[in-house]
Design a protein that fits this description.
It is globular and about 40 Å long. The chain has four helices and no strands. The termini are far apart. By secondary structure, it is mainly α.
Length: about 100
């Protein structure tokens, strides 16, 4: 279940629930992509962007602009692969938990 943006760490827990949701969504989509046997041209881009997202999810405070950029790369790379649509939607929702990135 996705949590609201305003929720932070659960009392007694060290992990921000948004980070936990991001980790879970990234791991799910990586598994789905690995299990997807059909090749497509941008698979390598999707795998690299998901690896970046996994690294960001390992941090206590992920870099929001990099999260969003990586999400766009994943969406562009696998957006037309309908079998991965649900995992992509869950990833987008997890990134959205962090709110919008500050404008420079």
């Amino acid at each position: 279940m996705l949590r609201g943006v305003d929720q932070r760490c659960v009392p007694g827990s060290q992990v921000d629930p948004r980070v936990a949701e991001l980790r879970s969504a990234v791991a799910r989509l990586r598994r789905q992509l690995a299990a997807h046997r059909a090749e497509f041209r941008d698979r390598g881009i999707a795998e690299e962007a998901l690896a970046t997202l996994a690294g960001l999810a390992a941090a206590d405070r992920p870099d929001i602009p990099v999260l969003r950029r990586s999400l766009l790369l994943v969406a562009g790379a696998i957006g037309s692969v309908s079998a991965l649509g649900e995992g992509l939607r869950q990833l987008r929702e997890a990134v959205d938990l962090f709110g919008t990135s500050p404008r420079a």
